[in-house]
Amino acid sequence: MLKHGEIWAAIDRLARDHGFTTSGLARRSGLDPTTFNRSKRVSSDGKARWPSTESLSKVLEATGVPLVHFFGLVNQNAGSPQSRTLPMASLSDLAAGNHFDPQGLPTGEHWDGISLAELHDPRAFAVEIMGASLEPFYFDGDVVIVSPSAPARRGDRVLLRSLTGDIKICRLLRRTARRIEVQSLSGDAALSSHPAESVSLLARIVWVSQ
């Protein structure tokens, strides 16, 4: 019997195998980019929503994947309990707000999703890089996984979010009880220092889909 979560996980896996986010896969298939968002997978009254046969047909046509192969992905997900869907949003969307709770962790219905196996931080989330501002470190379309629980050390690449909602991806230079010093990954490689109490989230980047 097909299960709701396994079908959605197979779509996530199909997107990842072809180098897309789920929103990118929907866009490539001629669908609304939000078609496969996590918020669309459950209705407002808590009932499970299934992808339509039309959307599945368009996805398989866009990727050139036979239906039998797709159901093979469903079976793989059924036997892979370590795989789970992480919340994901583009870097530009994060800067727009409404994505984090007061503790700096993902919240709300504005997140997309990406399937990833063997990641043990339940608070981890994914960020899609848009544009060329972070080259040559990250390129347009790259997806980075951010782990709030992973210890961040000097030299690590991190996502920093201020209490005012500013978001930046940078290199950690120094962290004390009072201040956090980082270096921009953009062209100017500018240094900046932030009072520790002004930072709501400092999370290490642990994986990138390059």
List keywords for this structure.
single chain, 210 residues, alpha+beta, 434 Repressor (Amino-terminal Domain), elongated
How are the SSEs ordered, and which strands pair?
Layout: H1 4-17, H2 22-28, H3 53-63, H4 67-78, E1 84-90, H5 91-95, E2 112-116, E3 125-128, E4 143-147, E5 157-162, E6 167-175, E7 179-184, E8 191-195, E9 199-208
Parallel strand pairs: 1-3
Antiparallel strand pairs: 1-2, 3-4, 4-9, 5-6, 5-9, 6-7, 7-8
Helix pairs in contact: 1-4
Order of helices and strands: HHHHEHEEEEEEEE
Amino- and carboxy-terminal Cα gap? 35 Å
CATH topology of the largest domain: Umud Fragment, subunit A
CATH class of the largest domain: Mainly Beta
Please, how many domains? Answer: 2
Structural class: alpha+beta
Mean of all residue-level pLDDT scores: 84
Query: Number of DSSP helices?
Result: 5
Task: Provide the CATH architecture of the largest domain.
Answer: Ribbon
Strand content: 25-35%
Please give the number of β-strands.
Answer: 9
The H-level CATH homologous superfamily of the largest domain, spelled out, is Umud Fragment, subunit A
Rg, Cα atoms, Å: 18 Å
**Biggest beta sheet attributes:** 9 strands, mixed
Helix content: 10-25%
Low-confidence spans:
none
Sum up the overall morphology in one term: elongated
Looking across the biggest beta sheet, what order are the strands in?
2-1-3-4-9-5-6-7-8
